[in-house]
Amino acid sequence: QLQLVESGGGLVQPGGSLRLSCAAPGFTLNYYAIGWFRQAPGKEREGISCISSVGGNTDYADSVVGQFTASRDHAKNTVTLQMDTLKPEDTAVYYCAADMLHGRTCRRDPGEYDYWGQGTQVTVSS
């Protein structure tokens, strides 16, 4: 069964940057759309970004557009989320997930995703 592993979370000051990575040891991510989600305490899980399996087409939530950038490296079998100009309200557990949708589109609805990572904590605080 596909298992996803996130890395790159941590503590960062407001205005700083972090890069999250999503990998699947022993499996290829190349045929899956990959989504990024976050969940802050007391809030619902939010789909913030996704990237298609073909063409690397992306979609972003309004809350992160222009601030976060998703990309994928087929050769390295990884997907990354570059997060810039971080704000305290970006504090959350961040998850990557794989959607069996194969093609040039992706979706940010968590209900469409089949496989999930364990999450990585991102804390933005001075």
Structure summarized in a few sentences:
This protein is mainly beta. It has strands at residues 5-7, 10-12, 18-23, 33-39, 46-51, 58-60, 68-73, 78-83, 92-99, 115-116, 120-124.
Can you offer a commentary on this structure?
With 126 residues, the chain is an all-beta fold. The chain is built from no helices and 11 strands. Strands 2, 4, 5, 6, 9, 10 and 11 form a 7-stranded mixed beta sheet that branches. The chain has a 4-stranded antiparallel beta sheet with strand order 1-3-8-7, with no helix packed on it. A hairpin with a 6-residue loop joins strand 5 and strand 6. The protein is globular and about 40 Å long. The N and C termini lie far apart (40 Å).
Tell me the number of strands.
Answer: 11
Portion of residues within helices = under 10%
**Average predicted confidence as pLDDT:** 96
Beta percentage is 35-45%
Q: How would a textbook summarize the main sheet?
A: 7 strands, mixed
Helix count, per DSSP?
0
Which class do the helix and strand fractions yield?
mainly beta
Order of helices and strands: EEEEEEEEEEE
Distance from first to last alpha carbon: 40 Å
